[in-house]
Amino acid sequence: MLRFVYVLIRNLHRAWMIPQAGYYAARDRKYSEEFRYQYDLKMIRQMMKTARISTSVYGRENLPSQGGYVMFPNHQGKYDALGIMYGHPLPCSVVMDDARSHMPLVSQFIDLVKGKRIKLHDIRQAAKIIQEVSAETAQGRKFIIFPAGGYKHRNGNQVDPFKPGTFKSAMKSKVPIVPVALVDSWKVYDLNSLRHVHTQVYFLKPLYYEDYKGMKSVEVCDHVYRRVCKAVRLGERNMPEQAVRC
């Protein structure tokens, strides 16, 4: 929390970027997806510089070269989606807990990339969001979905269990499933310190439709979970080459 407050204070003179982001988000026909994504990245890089955050990204070569796909990372905190987008070369979006998505700056950040707000305790609305993601990935969009749902504040890289239902968004549209491992992302806002923080993002080899077409969502979930857990352990041991091959 200390770092979050520090970033806000240090960037008060850039507060104009918030209504600017809202302006771009509301005019998606005028401003392209690439333009809006780059504006998001501009804000992310500025935040990282102010907050003394660095992120190493591994496995970009594993990302599918064409079409839509869904990335499924472990969830550690508020920085997770920002770290993934920082390392992702093409425009992508995110599915976020509705309750956490309406704060100033967070709201504009989500709107710029046409993110989805999901109500975790509203089964009907959640199913509708999954259908929307499925339809849009079939048309070439790329999404981040946190299969653990929420996250718990803790000191460590423990990977919370994944929910099988979240994988149906990709399975219905038969698009690639990209496991993503985050290491030390929790340190950004959970450490009560302003010292430099280094995080890691690993894009693992994707599961294509041919790989999972005979599997149930529970089986896909278990498979991705085990690979992410292994990659996190290897990342903690500074073994990136092995981690991206998980």
From TrEMBL:
**The UniProt record lists the keyword Lipid metabolism:** no
Which key words are in the record?
Acyltransferase, Transferase
In alphabetical order, the GO MF annotations are: acyltransferase activity
Boundaries of each Phospholipid/glycerol acyltransferase domain copy? 69-185
Keyword set includes Acetylation: no
Q: Which domain of life is it from?
A: Bacteria
Q: Which InterPro entries match?
A: Plipid/glycerol_acylTrfase
Q: Which PANTHER family match?
A: 1-ACYL-SN-GLYCEROL-3-PHOSPHATE ACYLTRANSFERASE, PHOSPHOLIPID_GLYCEROL ACYLTRANSFERASE DOMAIN-CONTAINING PROTEIN
Identification of the protein by name: 1-acyl-sn-glycerol-3-phosphate acyltransferase
Q: Which organism is it from?
A: Jutongia huaianensis
